[in-house]
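Q: Convert this sequence to structure tokens.
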Amino acid sequence: MIQENKINYFVTKIVTHAPNIKTIYLECRDGTGKAYTPVFRAGQFINVYFPETGTPEGKAYSISSAPHEDILAITVKAVGEFSNKLHQLKVGDRLTASMPYGYFYTETETSELVMIAGGISIAPFRSMILDSLQKKPNRKLALFHSSRTYDESIFRDEFAVLEKRFPNLKVFRYVTRDKVANVGIIHERLKIEDIIGTTDKAKLDIHTREFLICGSINFVGELWKGLRKAGVPEDVIYTESFFSH
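A:
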């Protein structure tokens, strides 16, 4: 990325979801000091730069806020050098990052979306869900979120409220390690059969949906292969993978 694409953001708010997960709210300021939010699409990300790490290309973090919220936020799990540095930020701190970009989104607002997230990769789907419900309130949406622990199954309360308001939104949460009973949590591994509608958990017709998968390389690769084997056409599957950083 060229130097001109690097801009200064300022931390305006921090929300802690779990001991290792935070949402960091950011704003830009023009030459007069007036705050503004860069234009972005739901599903895009920013590259964050910490020159002292010796990684000049930076690291990408998905935007978890929706465009109509008029704020830019990233939701970060502390798992590596960059993410731990982000967790150390305080309100008022400056952060060097890129303008929003990326192509993890569909080109239509009318298809039924099936979103599949592994762990912290639920971040771009929060943006997509809020954006879709704001633009097309009756659009059918299904989110499958697999996390290791209950604490990492974030945005629970917010999505529960949205499910009550919008019957067309269905959220399915899978937790693979915690075995304590929790309302609304499925304590088993997410399976392709759950996603494509061969069980009662989600009756989804694979021929009228688009599928978006975000998570680790292994998570995305396994589910992509499973969807293709189940007969889902390749051109309706969108993927985005990430490394732990």
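Residues 123-135 form the longest helix (13 residues).
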